[in-house]
Amino acid sequence: ASSMHPHTIETINTYGHYNGYEVEVINHHNGLIDEIELLNKLNSDVAAVVVSNPNFFGLIENPESYVQKIHDNKSLLIMMVNPLSLGILKTPGEIGADIVCGEAQSLGIPLSFGGPYLGFLCAKKEYVRKMPGRICGQTTDVDGRRAFVLTLQAREQHIRREKANSNICSNQSLMALMATVYLATMGKAGLKEVCEQNIQKAHYAYKRITALPNFEKVFAGPFFNEFVVKTNIDYEIIKEALLKENMMPGLHLGIYDEKLKNHILFCVTEKRTKAEIDRLVEVLGGLK
User: How many domains does the chain have?
Assistant: First the structure.
């Protein structure tokens, strides 16, 4: 889907090119994947449909409306998700996705100037043996206590390493542990509250910013904690003003598509306060 991050599309194109796969990008309509175009292009050559949710524009896609058509075509649905959003949105498993992947930095891992972070990969049981890495499972020890063991690791990892899938993985155990501690600490109710704060604060910022005379709405679809606004003020002026206030200026979408010049993607999480959001609006409102 063209509503995915351009860097992700470029990466998929690179892998596809050197592995004999043809990658076709479905256009977006009002920021969401064009479902009519998608369904028209489903045929026996389509191995999988890849959708990001929330997508690059921060909008929440609706794969439930076409997942059955994808499966009827004997194709797979692959979803790239923000795991934090799953505390309140339907999970890929509930939707019927076959493979799920994403970036789990939002699960209690600091930004740390760009990393290290935590990538994750999940799949239906019938695809587990095709997954890279080793699968850990829960069991009991000789005393009946709960324990975790490696339940699936291909022999190639030890005797034919050149054929081992796990060699494409990096060791993210520390980040995985941090995410696990975060999830255990927050719990189901805590995670839902974090999601609600993301939604409420992002929508508050969106409403305030789009009420300014030099800013306007771009998409009408629902969003989680990211949104796009259009402005008639040059992005470099906005960038300079916000950096002086020690605020992130948002992502200028014009660097990916000239048609999106002065379209800015903002993100507002649970860590931002109302006072900080109000100050952001105040600075933007003072620009000409």
Answer: 2
